[in-house]
């Protein structure tokens, strides 16, 4: 492959491609056209973002899941724009290729399209985000219309939308039975409004497959089966830091166990006087 083709506007591989420029929403659309699947992970700090970026992850989400995995809350609801902007800025600084998407947190966009624009503009201007994500279907179309018209790429989110957990009565699968038709209608409406992708969370696999086939924009699954165009996981879940992960999580590494081993070894060596050794000391 020539250097010219490697640096073209549509890379031949979205995952693991060359780091000459940032991935764009057009690259995601091109991957959909090619039938190419791709991964997305969450990130909340520069060092972790650098690892994921160098691994070739094309899209990183600074999720409102930071409320739980960074700030220690029991839901996504308490986190604010002010909480997420520094995390988003860190991920942008720590990466050079990935498209960085910032979650609009609960209360920052629901009241009006103007609120949505003000919140999204802060993420773009202050943090350098490349896109934003918001939850909901047809009820947030005015917000999406205004953001898209202002030049802000918008990722939608349907199914189990964690910011509505109290309305749902808990973390439950969404879209079963007749409600699947409503979710399909919402997905088509988001696409029509200009969303560049849609997250489908905790929906039946057959419904996710039908939505994916019906849309020309990428679908990103989390607990939505294997047929979506992309898959996303919270990085602490896939690395084994979460004590009781959801059914849809696959643990790829026991990071909690490795960290426990390392910190105990450090503590034991401090107590015994083995650390610091001469090679760790200055003369």
TrEMBL record:
Subcellular location: Cytoplasm
Top-rank taxon, per record: Bacteria
Gene Ontology CC: one annotated term: cytoplasm
Pathways involved: Cofactor biosynthesis; (R)-pantothenate biosynthesis; (R)-pantoate from 3-methyl-2-oxobutanoate: step 1/2
Binding site for 3-methyl-2-oxobutanoate: 64-65, 103, 133
Keyword Cytoplasm included in the entry's annotation: yes
EC number: 2.1.2.11
Named cofactor requirement(s): Mg(2+)
Binding positions for Mg(2+) per the UniProt entry: 64, 103, 135
Catalysed transformations (reactions): (6R)-5,10-methylene-5,6,7,8-tetrahydrofolate + 3-methyl-2-oxobutanoate + H2O = 2-dehydropantoate + (6S)-5,6,7,8-tetrahydrofolate
Entry annotation: catalytic residues: 201
The keyword Ion transport appears for this protein: no
InterPro entries: Pantoate_hydroxy_MeTrfase, Pyrv/PenolPyrv_kinase-like_dom, Pyrv_kinase-like_dom_sf
Signal peptide segment: none
Annotated cofactor note: Binds 1 Mg(2+) ion per subunit.
Function field: Catalyzes the reversible reaction in which hydroxymethyl group from 5,10-methylenetetrahydrofolate is transferred onto alpha-ketoisovalerate to form ketopantoate.
Protein name (Swiss-Prot/TrEMBL): 3-methyl-2-oxobutanoate hydroxymethyltransferase
Source organism (scientific name): Sphaerisporangium album
Gene: panB
């Amino acid at each position: 492959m020539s250097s010219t083709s490697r640096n073209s506007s549509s890379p031949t591989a979205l995952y693991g491609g060359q780091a000459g420029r940032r991935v764009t929403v057009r690259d995601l659309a091109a991957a959909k056209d090619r039938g190419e699947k791709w991964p997305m992970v969450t990130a909340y700090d520069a060092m972790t973002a650098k690892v994921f970026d160098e691994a070739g992850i094309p899209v990183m989400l600074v999720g409102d899941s930071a409320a739980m995995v960074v700030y220690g809350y029991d839901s996504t609801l308490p986190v604010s724009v002010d909480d997420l902007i520094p995390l988003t800025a860190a991920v942008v600084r720590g990466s050079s290729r990935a498209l960085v998407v910032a979650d609009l947190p609960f209360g920052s966009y629901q009241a009006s399209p103007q609120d949505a624009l003000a919140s999204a503009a802060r993420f773009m201007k202050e943090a350098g985000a490349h896109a934003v994500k918001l939850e909901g279907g047809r009820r947030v179309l005015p917000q999406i219309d205004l953001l898209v018209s202002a030049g802000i790429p918008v990722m939608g989110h349907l199914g189990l939308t964690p910011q509505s957990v109290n309305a749902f009565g808990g973390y439950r699968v969404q879209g079963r039975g007749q409600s699947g038709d409503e979710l399909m209608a919402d997905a088509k409406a988001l696409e029509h409004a200009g969303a560049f992708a849609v997250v489908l969370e905790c929906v039946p696999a057959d419904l996710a497959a039908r939505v994916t086939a019906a849309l020309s924009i990428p679908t990103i699954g989390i607990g939505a089966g294997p047929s979506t165009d992309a898959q996303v996981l919270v990085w602490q879940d896939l690395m084994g830091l979460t004590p009781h992960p959801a059914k849809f999580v696959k643990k790829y590494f026991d990071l909690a166990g490795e960290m426990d081993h390392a910190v105990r070894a450090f503590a034991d060596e401090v107590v015994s006087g083995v650390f610091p050794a001469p090679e760790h000391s200055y003369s």
